[in-house]
Each structure stands twice: as structure tokens, then as C-alpha cells.
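User: I'm putting together notes for a lab meeting next week and I want to include a structural view of one of the chains we've been expressing. I don't have a solved structure, so I'd like a prediction I can at least talk through. The sequence is below, exactly as it appears in our construct file.
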Amino acid sequence: MCVFVCNRVEYDYYKYHPMPEITNWMTQIAKDHPDVVTIVDYGQTYEKRTISLLKVIYIFYLKPKKKLSGWTVVYMQGISCMSSNIYKFSIVLSNQILQTYKTDPKMEKMMMNMDFYVTPVLNVDGYMYSWQDNTTRLWRKNMSPGPSGCDCNGTDLNRNFNANWGTIGVSFDCCSNTFCGSSPISETEAQAVTYFVGSRKEDFLCFLTIHSYSQLLLVPYGHPDFTTPNYNELMEVGLAAADEIKKVHGTHYTVGTPPDVLYAFSGSSSDWARQQGIPFSYTFELRDNGTFGFELPEDQIKPSCEEAYEGALYIITYAHDKTFSGAMNTVATALWTMLLALFRTFHLFHKLQ
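Assistant: Thanks for the context. Below is the predicted structure for the 353-residue chain, given as C-alpha cells.
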């Protein structure tokens, strides 16, 4: 069992926790790892709660740059609220990275080259509402009020991003669980992600969103009339990641676009990220396959996170190696050329002496 003391309360990674305990965990993680972890506040919910992420960055090294504008970044978020299980994977992955980068040379290398941004809970209002009582347990949306004349609250944030918004697999009924909002990016939570990621989209390499349930690894796009240019690569990497997942506990994940393996829908953050040019965009639909649905028993959190971690790690490692193997060779060549020039200058100088 993985626990640590958080504000004098044991935090168990394999139990469900209310939002205040998650916030306390983030604060404690930053205190425990001040050399690599900071908390970044980058938005507010409709009810004026802060949206925060953990920024995991290896600050003691000069990081090579893929592009002149900034570091290469891996972004991950838990977006929905119908299951408390979604945020657990974000938290466990963060902890796993922090526990292994000092002993695993591969993880250390990835930490040297990339930053990791992890938002355990994007929909803070909806998550807190889902803890209110059993009648709200499976709440999916945020808590913004509906349009004029509507008595229902909430927009499905994963239908609210500006990616073929409102065209398929959504509802304009404000009482529906798949209500896409009054306009694209109408919700403050979607606005926070759009600004934070979109304002420096050229820096981002991976965009991973965590959902449940169905045991799926989804690639863009959710609209059947559109195909991402790197579809074949995303599928190849996704299938390999699914193989890594299966090796852990034998759990089978199906890989494909939403229309092919689930259902068509538009306005997802994953589709939006791919349209912004972020090359590796995936959605994890965690356990299970329908037996327990959104109410996954706590005794399945640990194996669910263990297997999903291996899948995510494969995707991140692939993206890293593809990006930085060429970059390292280029840097090495440039360094060698510079040293050779210096050597020749030094030799010529002494010859003239």
C-alpha cells in the first residue's frame, strides 16, 4: 500500500479522496520535492475555485530545445467527474515519475529533456458536487448555469472545446449529460486549458486526457469525417501501448478513433489538442469494461493505475525518443564542429607563434 503523511493525514493512493485532500496532496508533493515540483494556478472554475497543475521540471540541467520558443512539454489532465477513478491515474503517474527519475536512467533522461504538467482535476466544481451525496455521485458536467429559461446546470467540458464543436454526438438540451454549451469554449475550465496550452502550443509534445470507463485508448478525431495526418503513427503507438498495458494484468484495451470503437462526438480536448499541432494526443478510458462502470471498486484502483501507467509511459517514451534522438545527434554534430574549429584555430595560432 502506498501512503504518505499529508497534513497529518495518511494519503492512500489507492482510495478515492475528496477535493480538499487532493489539494493537500499537491501541496505536500511540492514541499517534498521542491527541486523538481511547483504548483501552477492557471484558471478558475465557474464557482471561482482555482484550477491548478503540478509542474514537474528537472531544473538543474540546461534542457535541449526542440524549438527556440521553449521546452518540450507533456500535459495530462483528468477532465470528467463521473468516476473518481479518473484523477487517480494522474496522481499515481506523477508520484511514479518522482519516485523513479533518480534511479531509472531512462526516466532521468526524459526528465532532463521534457517538462511534465499534470492537472489531476480540471472540473473542480463538478468533482466536489459529485461528493455531495449518492444522488450526485455520477455527476459529469461542470456547474455553470444553463441558458436563459433552463433550470439545469452544467456543460460537458469534453464537448465544449473548439474542435468541430456542436456538430456530432452532442446535445443542445441543457439538461443532457452531453450538453456542449452555448458556444465553443464557453466554459471557464475549457478557457483555462485553451489559453494555457494554446498560448504555447508549439512547446507541447504529448496531450493525454484521462476518462473512464471502457478500457479504450482513443486517438483523434471524434468526428468521422476527419482524419488526423499522423493517424497511422498514432495507431501504431497506441497498439504498442495497449500491448504494454496487457502485459501487466492481462487487461485488454481497444485502440482506435471514437467513431470506430466507441461513438462519434465533437468538441473534445484531445481533438482540440491535435488540431493545435500537438502530435501525440490520446484519451485513456480506464477500467472497467462495464461490470462496475463508473463506480469502480477501490480494490481495482491499484491494478488499473499500474497497467495504464505502462501504456502512458510507452507513449511518452516513444514521443521523447523520436523527438530527441535526432535533436541529440544534431547537438553532438554541432558541438563536434565547434570543437574542431576551435582546435584548428588553436593549432594555427601556435603555428604562427
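A couple of points you could mention at the meeting. The beta strands are 3-6, 9-12, 37-44, 50-56, 72-78, 114-119, 204-212, 216-218, 254-256, 280-286. Residues 1-9, 65-71, 327-353 have pLDDT under 50 and may be disordered.

User: Perfect, that's what I needed.
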